[in-house]
Specification:
Layout: E1 6-21, E2 24-33, E3 37-40, H1 47-59, E4 66-78
Antiparallel strand pairs: 1-2, 1-3, 1-4
């Protein structure tokens, strides 16, 4: 007997952002997390689009920072 028909999913990622101005390189850590989503069998899950939108929003303020690397990526899944 299946007691659970869905799972809850959340993604956290930590990234290093970098920019160069007049030869000076600045790096800052940035942290993103998706909202918790309840996913049922057969339902599509696209957490990457949400994270990309958050990154675009963060970069869209004209700071000149770009993604250098992802330093941590965690997927949390619960019944």
């Amino acid at each position: 007997m299946n007691l659970y028909s869905s799972i809850r999913v959340q993604v956290h990622d930590d990234v290093a952002m970098v920019r160069e101005i007049d030869g000076d390189i600045s790096r800052v850590p940035v942290y993103f997390a998706t909202n918790v989503q309840t996913i049922k069998e057969g339902q599509d899950l696209d957490m990457v689009a949400n994270l990309n939108a958050q990154l675009d929003n963060w970069c869209g303020h004209g700071s000149g920072f770009v993604l250098e690397r992802i330093t941590r990526f965690v997927i949390s899944i619960t019944k």
